[in-house]
Structure formats: C-alpha cells, structure tokens
C-alpha cells in the first residue's frame, strides 16, 4: 500500500477545493456573459449550460468533501464558534447553503429549457427565459465570490 | 454524466451537501467538531461523504422516477413527490447506516486482521437491526423535509423557466 505524506495529502485536498471553486465561478461568469448577449439561437448556450450544471454539482460535492478535509487539518487548533474566525466560518457555510439552494432552481430551470429547446415546443416570444437564467448565473458568480471573500478572511484572520 | 440525470444529480447532490453542512454546523456549535474530526482519518472521512453522496443521489433518482410514473406527474401536480421522497429517504437512512457499518468493519480489519474481529459480526447484528429501524425513521423524516423543500424549489424553477407542463424533466 502506498503511504502518502500527510502534507502532500493536505495540499492535494486544498488544490481540489480551489479547483472546484474555480470551475464553478469561471463557468458561471462565462455563462452569465454568454446568455446576456443577443442570441440568434438558444440551443448552443443551453447545451453549454446543461454541461456546466452537471460539472457544477460534481464540483459542489467536491467542495463540501474537501472543505471538511480542510477543517479537519486544523485538528485541535480549530477555533470555537464564538471567535471572529468561527463567525466567518458559519457565514461561509450559510452562503454556501444559499448558493446551493439557488443553484438547484437554476439547474432544474436549465433542464426544462434544454428539454423544450430540443423538443417541438417553441420558446415564449416575448421575454426569453434564458435572460432569467443569465441573472441566476450572475447571482451564482456573486455568491461564490462572497464565499471566496469569507475564505480569505478565514485564512488571514479576523 | 448522462444529460437525462440532471434533475436527480442536482437534487441528490444538494441533499447530500446540505445534510453534511447541517451536521457540521450542529457539531461545531456544540463545540465537539475538533474531537469528531480528530478521530477520523482523511480517507475514512472521504469514504463517509462519498457513501452518503452516492446513496442520496441513488435514492433521489428513484424517488423522482416514482414521481414521474405517478398519475399526477403529467399535469404538473408536485404533491405526490413528498410521499415518494419520504419512502426513499427512509431507505437512504438504512443504506447509509449499512455503508457505515461496512466501512467501520473494513477499517477495524485493516488495523487488526484477526479472526476474532470477524467473530464480533454475528454479535453486532441485533444492534445493527435496531439501528436500522432508527435510521429508517430518521431517513424518512429527512426525506419528508427535503421532499417538501424540493417541491418549492421545483415550483421556483418552473416560474424561472416559464414552464407549464411536466415539472421534473428528464434532461
């Protein structure tokens, strides 16, 4: 059995945590910009959005998995909930839960839109629902940026 | 991932993540998180969450499939999703408990690969049976809560997408 160095494992866990966050944030920003622009066809951006949604949830699971690993790395030095660090940590978790809740709505809406775009039913002629999805991608990017800011506060002290 | 699984994949992962975060917050607020995590190796912790994640996505997929087969689904009525979530939530609780028991046994066997360790398994079966009943009830309650939340999230998704027909689309 291969014995992994403790520090290498910790570094790997942190890399996976940051890479997952980068995928979620980068994808949300890209789709926000793509869907805000005037579209000649909604099929291509919706295909990209559907692919992103699958990757988003894989990254979300990895973020939680590696996030707990990062907290475990503190060991007995973990600061209690009453400290500034503890408050920032709890706020970060609250932001993540809110982000995940909003993201379920976004994913399910994308699934419905993609299904309709590939079927015979046409999109509503007046206000395109992809505009609403674009706003949700903007909110997603904003919530991830807020979680990153709280992570920076936790990393550099409060 | 197949595109057909997006609804199950997103809802199942959402349930697993929120469950893990809720547990983390409760233990942290009670002040026992450092002790709880100190007794858990990285590999064991990862195995636990991956088990919870897999079991939850599996049972969420089955709950949504059961809903899609219900007579109310084509009309867009979401209420039958709640009892379906309750049933599959109960199974999720039991599945996760059995997964915990197996991973615990593997961890013990890895550190003490002796026949005496295996001899403890029959003695643990009555405890596992009672624990399964508790996990069944707890899982059902968690399924009920998430089923109710899911109905609201699906309604919101419908309003965002401007949909009016089938709610839980296979995309």
Description of the structure:
- In chain A, 78% of the residues lie in helices and 0% in strands.
- Chain A is mainly alpha-helical and 158 residues long.
- The radius of gyration of chain B is 19 Å and the shape is elongated.
- Chain B has five helices and no strands.
- The longest helix of chain B is centred in the last third of the chain and has 47 residues.
- Classes of the chains: A mainly alpha (158), B mainly alpha (171).
Map the helices and strands.
The complex is a heterodimer of chains A (158) and B (171).
Chain A: H1 6-36, H2 43-72, H3 84-118, H4 129-156
Helix pairs in contact in A: 1-2, 1-4, 2-3, 3-4
Chain B: H1 6-30, H2 33-38, H3 42-69, H4 81-111, H5 115-161
Helix pairs in contact in B: 1-3, 3-4, 4-5
SSE class of chain B: mainly alpha
Low-confidence stretches of chain A: 122-127
Summed over residues and divided by their number, the pLDDT of chain B gives a mean of 87
Radius of gyration of chain A: 19 Å
Stretches with pLDDT under 50, minimum 5 residues of chain B: none
Order of helix and strand elements from N to C terminus of chain A: HHHH
Radius of gyration of chain B: 19 Å
């Amino acid at each position: 059995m291969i014995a992994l160095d403790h520090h290498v494992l910790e570094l790997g866990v942190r890399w996976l945590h940051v890479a997952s966050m980068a995928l979620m944030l980068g994808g949300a920003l890209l789709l926000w910009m793509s869907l805000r622009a005037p579209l000649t066809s909604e099929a291509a951006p919706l295909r990209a959005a559907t692919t992103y949604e699958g990757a988003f949830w894989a990254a979300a699971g990895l973020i939680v998995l590696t996030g707990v690993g990062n907290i475990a790395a503190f060991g007995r030095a973990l600061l209690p909930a009453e400290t500034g660090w503890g408050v920032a940590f709890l706020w970060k978790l609250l932001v993540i839960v809110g982000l995940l809740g909003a993201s379920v709505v976004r994913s399910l809406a994308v699934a419905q839109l993609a299904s309709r775009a590939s079927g015979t039913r046409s999109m509503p002629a007046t206000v395109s629902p992809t505009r609403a999805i674009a706003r949700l991608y903007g909110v997603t990017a904003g919530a991830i940026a807020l979680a990153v800011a709280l992570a920076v506060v936790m990393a550099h002290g409060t | 991932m197949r595109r057909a699984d997006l609804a199950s994949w997103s809802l199942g992962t959402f349930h697993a993540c929120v469950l893990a975060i809720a547990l983390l917050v409760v233990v942290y607020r009670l002040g026992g998180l450092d002790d709880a995590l100190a007794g858990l190796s990285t590999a064991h912790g990862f195995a636990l969450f991956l088990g919870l994640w897999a079991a939850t996505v599996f049972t969420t997929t089955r709950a949504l499939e059961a809903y899609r087969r219900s007579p109310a689904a084509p009309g867009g009525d979401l209420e039958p999703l709640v009892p379906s979530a309750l049933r599959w939530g109960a199974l999720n609780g039991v599945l996760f408990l059995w997964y915990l028991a197996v991973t615990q046994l593997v961890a013990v066997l890895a550190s003490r690969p002796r026949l005496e360790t295996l001899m403890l398994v029959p003695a643990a079966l009555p405890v596992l049976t009672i624990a399964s009943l508790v996990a069944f009830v707890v899982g059902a309650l968690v399924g009920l809560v998430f089923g109710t939340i899911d109905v609201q999230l699906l309604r919101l998704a419908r309003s965002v997408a401007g949909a009016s027909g089938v709610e839980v689309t296979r995309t």
